[in-house]
Write a structure and sequence with these properties.
With about 170 residues, this protein is mostly helical. It has six helices and two strands.
């Protein structure tokens, strides 16, 4: 059993007392926003994702909050995507557990199909976050180039076209 000090440290962004949540100062910075209404909305969504019934699950909420803040969102889009990623991860683990405890082929097929779709969704979300952070541009860095005797190397932007450079 954990003591009160350990529980408070487990979720530094909010304190849960029964079904009441107190959000600490500085939460907006951790959620990539300057808007308190947005931050409160995300916190409510994290509580819903982290809890299974009408009662607030403090550990579940702390986990999904840690997932979101661990991604270190820089703006509201990243925060919403990180929140979705936390939800999809939880659902993925639920179906992984169900798949491990199936009793018939129909349950196996259902859990397997859902698990596969959720895992693919999570991968797509990771890719979307990466594209958002890089502006959708790929960067290639060449670390080593060898030019043999008599060879030529061109360094810079290269475009190809027709004889007159316009494709004609």
């Amino acid at each position: 059993m954990t003591d009160q000090k350990t529980q408070e440290a487990s979720n530094p962004l909010m304190k849960v007392d029964g079904n009441h949540i107190t959000v600490v100062d500085g939460i907006k910075k951790h959620l990539g926003t300057k808007n308190i209404d947005f931050a409160n909305g995300i916190i409510n969504q994290l509580v819903n994702i982290g809890s299974k019934g009408p009662e607030i699950d403090e550990k579940g909420t702390a986990f999904v909050t840690a997932v979101v803040t661990g991604i270190e969102p820089k703006d509201q889009i990243e925060t919403m995507l990180a929140t979705q990623m936390a939800a999809i991860h939880n659902a993925t683990m639920t179906f992984a557990r169900r798949l491990a405890h199936v009793e018939n082929i129909a349950q196996q097929d259902s859990a397997s199909r859902a698990l596969n779709q959720l895992a693919r969704t999570f991968t797509a979300q990771v890719d979307a976050l990466k594209r958002h952070r890089t502006g959708g541009q790929q960067h290639v860095t060449v670390k080593h180039v060898t030019v043999n005797e008599g060879g030529q190397a061109i360094v810079g932007n290269v475009s190809t076209g027709g004889r007159d450079g316009n494709g004609n």
